[in-house]
Amino acid sequence: MLSSQLKLSLSYYSDLYDMIVPKDHILRKIRELVDFSFIYDELKNKYCLDNGRNAKNPYIAI
Q1: Could you tell me the pLDDT band of residue 62, with boundaries at 50, 70 and 90?
Q2: For the chain, what is the HEC assignment?
Q3: Is the pTM above the cut of 0.70?
Q4: With left for phi above 0 and alpha for psi between -120 and 50, is residue 55 left, alpha or beta?
Q5: DSSP three-state, residue 12
Q6: Which parts of the sequence belong to the Transposase InsH N-terminal domain (predicted)?
């Protein structure tokens, strides 16, 4: 089962990420520039909508 999330929480440590990763780091720039919302639409048909336990949001894997 795949459910969409309105706000993505990658980890309980997201606040720590903001404190540790430098503002000019390449991964932070990629995160700001690239819209990864297409991932959900691309993978939606790979998950059963009414059977099984809830799946993690595929956005987290990317």
Answers
A1: low
A2: CCCCCCCCCCCCCHHHHHHHCCCCCHHHHHHHHCCCCHHHHHHHHHCCCCCCCCCCCHHHHC
A3: no
A4: beta
A5: coil
A6: 18-59
Residue 52 has a pLDDT of: 75
Query: What residues contact residue 10 under an 8 Å CB cut-off, 6+ apart?
Result: 17, 60
Contact 24, 18 (CB under 8 A): no
The single residue listed with the structure tokens 């799946």 is 55
Amino acid at 8: L
**Residue extents of the structural domains in the chain:** 14-61
